[in-house]
Each structure stands twice: as C-alpha cells, then as structure tokens.
Amino acid sequence: MRDIIFHILFVWYPYFCLTAFIIGSLIRFDRDQYSWKASSSQMLRKRQLYWGSNLFHFGILFLFFGHAVGLLTPTSVYTLVMTVEQKQLLAVTAGGIAGVICFIGLTLLLHRRLSDARIRLTSTVMDLVVLVILWVQLTLGLITLPFSLGHRDGSAMLTLSHWAQGIVTLQPVDARTMQSLEWPFLMHLVLGMTIFLVFPFSRLVHIWSAPVWYLGRRGYQVVRTRRPLATSGARRRAEPAE
C-alpha cells in the first residue's frame, strides 16, 4: 500500500499538476483574460505593502530559479566546478537566506490582508488560499534545512534532483526511492506540485503578464513645447492642393 501511495504522489500526481498548469493557463488566457488581475488595495497600508511585496517577490524569485537550477542541473555538470557536498551547503545557505526574506515578506502580506477589514473586502477566497498555501510551503522549506544539513553526503539532494529530472525527461524514477526522505521533504514536494495545480485558477497567473518586454524597449522622453498645436482643420488647409 505504501508503494502505491508513493507511486501516485511522485509519479502520477506531478504530471497531473503540470498538465493542469499548462492547459489551464492557456484556457484562462484565451477565454477569461478580464479576470487576469487582482482587486487593488494599494491605497491601504502602503508601507506594509511596500515592504511585504518587495521582500516576498525578491525571495520567491530567488527561490524559484534556485530550485530550478539546483534540481534540474545534471550531477555530471555541476561536479565539474564543485562537489555534491559543496553544492548542498551552497543551496542550504543561499536558500535559507532567501527563504527567511521571503517568509518575512509573505507574513507581512498575509497579516495585512487578514487584519484589515477593508482589504479583506477586496480579497477573494482563492487569494487567501494561495497566500496560506505559499506560507505553509515556505515554512516546510525552512523546516527542511536542518534535515538537509543532517545529510552531509548530499544524498537527500541527489534523490530530489534525480526525481525532478526524471519527471521533466519523462523518465520518472522508482517512487520507492523517495521513501528514504524525511516527512518535511515529502510534504514540501507534494504542496509544491499542488501550487502548480491551483496556479491557473488563482491570481498567480499574473506571473505570465510580467512586463519583461520593457527591458528591451527603446527609451523616450516627453518634451514640453510652447508652440501652439495646429488643429486638424488648420493642418488640412495648410496642405497643398493637388
């Protein structure tokens, strides 16, 4: 029975969540773009929003790309520059710092949304559910840090990376290998996959609308002039007749 549960959670469930993530995002973009937003509460508790939002976004972006690089980089590649033990220490240190920063920011955002009645009125149930899920996920991630340090040989990190690479390459590993991991790792993985599952149905879809195209946009400058602007009628009279 234990083998069946692990097979469902770590072989079937990841593909179910990724399928819902991709197809759900495409369907929502195609059919429900006007909901691709969140109700604004920027005018309320601006200082707490400023610190919470900036700390959260800095931390979550670092953690996302850190997890992606750490889990999906083949062992044969990163061992060209560092050992497995060194990579684990780097991941625990950098991930721990970013995790604490993100946790502080998310706690500020969650407190702001729950403690102010006016802000709660602009929040949907899914808004609160997503914030709580992310908060629990960050808490589990921080709990895994001492367990990671307990595996000084990097065995837990190797198990996780081999599992993630197997999912991406459509060659999933034997789910029984995941049974060697402690409960915080397992819960962290399952909840992380669940975030991909609820992604298309929440405000998290605003990630797809990140204005990264501004980075390559040509700059422009607005210049004031005292010259009177010609009206459309005056411009037509000034045009030479053919």
* CATH architecture annotation name: Up-down Bundle
Tell me the distance between the termini: 89 Å
Which word captures the global form? globular
CATH homolog superfamily: Transmembrane di-heme cytochromes, Chain C
Number of strands: 0
Rg calc = 24 Å
Poorly predicted segments: none
CATH-defined topology? Fumarate Reductase Cytochrome B subunit
Helix content: 55-70%
Number of helices: 9
The top level CATH class name:
Mainly Alpha
Strand composition percent: under 5%
Element-by-element helix/strand order:
HHHHHHHHH
What's the number of structural domains? 1
Mind summarizing the main beta sheet?
none
Mean pLDDT: 84
Helix- and strand-based class? Answer: mainly alpha
Structural account:
By secondary structure, this protein is an all-alpha fold. The chain has a single domain, classed as Fumarate Reductase Cytochrome B subunit (Up-down Bundle). It has nine helices and no strands. Helix 1 runs parallel beside helix 8 and helix 2 packs antiparallel against helix 4. The chain is globular. It starts with a helix and ends with a helix. The model has no long low-confidence stretch (mean pLDDT 84).
